[in-house]
Amino acid sequence: MTYFCGLALTWGALLWFWMQEAPAQTEHPQVEQITVYGSTVLLGAGGSTVLVTSLSMVADLIGPTVGSGAFVYGLMSFTDKVSNGVAVQIVQALHPCKSTNPKHVCCSACAKFYRIVLSAVPGGATLCALICLAILTLYVYRRTRQLRDPTFDTSD
């Protein structure tokens, strides 16, 4: 349930990111700049909740076989680093402005691009996490039910 709450916080932040306008395109740019902090806090709280709950699930998965724990956590960390690196490279490759000038002010296409990136990329990851959570929950429910009642039929 905690994992689901973390996903809900993350989805709240993603919807908030999607609804925000670029500060230069609104009547009150200061208000839009301030609201970025609220959506960022939601994203941080949701992401932290999901991360801590995921680590707890991995610890439960390892259980008493602590000999493989270092390998599992190392593999998990390596996968995290590689997937983040690949995601950053994809985002940079798809960026609409190709200027390398540090004083370059991005165009309106950049604002739309970043809105999509801030909403769709974490949204896709949380959707995958929600599907995995549903499968895991169904498996745990069926397994628990089978252990309590040996006559429970799992073939359906």
From TrEMBL:
- List keywords of the entry alphabetically: Membrane, Signal, Transmembrane, Transmembrane helix
Coiled-coil parts of chain: none
Q: Name one GO cellular component term.
A: plasma membrane
Q: Which residues form the signal peptide?
A: 1-24
- At the top level of its lineage, which domain of life is listed? Eukaryota
Q: Which GO terms describe its biological process?
A: carbohydrate transport
Q: Which InterPro entries match?
A: MFS_2 (IPR039672)
- Hydrolase in keyword set: no
In alphabetical order, the GO MF annotations are:
symporter activity
Q: Which PANTHER family match?
A: MAJOR FACILITATOR SUPERFAMILY DOMAIN-CONTAINING PROTEIN, MAJOR FACILITATOR SUPERFAMILY DOMAIN-CONTAINING PROTEIN 12
Family, per entry: Belongs to the major facilitator superfamily.
Could you tell me what this protein is called?
A: Major facilitator superfamily domain-containing protein 12
